[in-house]
Amino acid sequence: MPAGALLVRHGGDEFACLLPFAPNAPDTVQAVADDMLSRIGHGVAIEGVDSPVTVSIGIAPSTLIVQADPVSDAARLLHLADIAMYHAKRQGRNRSQWFEPAMEQALTERRALEAGIRAGLAAGEFEPYYEQQIDISTGKICGFEMLARWNSPQGLIGPDVFIPVSEEIGVIGALSEKLIAQALRDARDWSPELTLSVNISPVQLRDPWFSQRLLRMLVNEGFPPSRLDIEITESCLHDNLASVEAQVTSLRNQGISISLDDFGTGYSSLAQLRALPFNRIKIDRSFVTSMHANADSATIVRSITSLGAGLGLPITAEGIENEEISSRLTALGRFTGQGYLYGQPEPAHVVRAQLAARGLLAPGQGEPANPTDTASRRSA
Ligand code: G
Ligand code: G
Ligand code: MN
User: Fold this and answer.
1) Confidence at 369, pLDDT banded by 50, 70, 90
2) Which residues surround ligand 3, an ion (CB under 5 A)?
3) pLDDT at residue 378 in the model
């Protein structure tokens, strides 16, 4: 550290530096940070084993705070530096980041979102919606994919917002299992040949008891494993192939089927496709929605189709938005399809009414559907 600086261990693996600098010469501070990054980044050798070590640095200039008294000023500066450090970590670690006021706003919003998710989970604000899966050669419904929705006090919120945050704050398992239990109860009223697909986060597959708990849920809800399909994304395969393999095998042994979701967007090698006993590939919707307009997308869809045919894996095409796409797919082969052409994701009572109209409810479930009716029958 330069002369006049203070370096302290702040706790755990955190250190704080207090460093005087001329407000018109922030480069001197940046130079210290860069020096730290490069020297610490060399790693250390412990008993002959090289251990990589990196540091993430947050920098807060005292010019940004309204000065009051030394104790609260120090606490405020540390708080701002901490916010900047988390940005440095999120940007990929091993770097420095100066505090900017917008970061504090983003942090406040993020805290509110986290608190909202926790409260919403306790209050039962998360609800399964269902998207139809169609055999596009016959037009018949073969099942539904459950898609999580959040009836938050601010309105309906999609999974792209709350799933990543739920993963980071460690509530994804509880959230997902609550939704799955509800979905099993909803789907029990559907015709027995209709399947239920649920998305599972890579974070859930890291829990070695996940498959056991899922099987217990099936028993508790009286739902046949053969009607359940688990969708996992390619990113699962990189995280922890061995653990995923064990869980997937155990689920398969119980009769649950496994689909590889969003195929084509990740970077699975074709060998990895063979490493796990998948039952199905789902082509990512980005290729399907553009296949009538973009030659590269059409080529990718065609290649995945022949890959599936060669490996004996049936294929679901997501994102079928119009007749032109569905007829192009029909020309390529046999597909299960999902997309706006067939319908938007709907809540359980709407699905139930649609199925009732088509005579696709389970035997004994044929009465006219409405939500209060369903609720009173369950509690009876
Ligand atoms: O919470 P955080 O991700 O910053 O912690 C980094 C890791 O370093 C954690 O695994 C934590 O347990 C570990 N760690 C932090 N401080 C100490 C310490 O003083 N001693 C030891 N042994 N481990 C620490
Ligand atoms: O419904 P929508 O298309 O906005 O969903 C966006 C993505 O969120 C989907 O690709 C789906 O994989 C994911 N998703 C929806 N519901 C769940 C869920 O319950 N758990 C997990 N892990 N992902 C979900
Ligand atoms: Mn999916």
Assistant:
1) very low
2) 199, 231, 261
3) 46
Q: What is the identity of the amino acid at 205?
A: L
Strands (DSSP E) along the chain, which ranges?
A: 6-11, 14-18, 44-46, 49-51, 57-59, 96-98, 126-135, 140-152, 155-157, 195-199, 228-233, 257-263, 280-283, 315-317, 336-337, 346-347
Of 299, 256, 263, the residue nearest 279 (C-alpha): 256
pLDDT per position as a tens digit, 25-59: 999 999 999 999 999 998 889 999 988 899 999 99
160 lines ligand 1 (CB under 6 A): no
Residue 6 alpha carbon to ligand 1 centre in Å: 22
11 lines ligand 1 (CB under 6 A): no
Rounded Cα–Cα distance for residues 154 and 87 (Å): 27
Radius of gyration from C-alpha coordinates of the chain: 26
Nearest 10 degrees: Cα torsion 334, 339, 341, 346: 130
CA dist 323 → 83, 281, 284 (Å): 50, 22, 18
- Any atom of ligand 1 within 6 Å of the Cβ of 12: yes
Provide the CA 66 distance to its chain's centre, in angstroms.
Answer: 40
**Is the Cβ atom of 84 under 6 angstroms away from ligand 2?**
no
Closest-lying ligand to the alpha carbon of 89? 1
pTM of the model: 0.79
Q: How many CB atoms lie within 10 A of CB 345?
A: 20
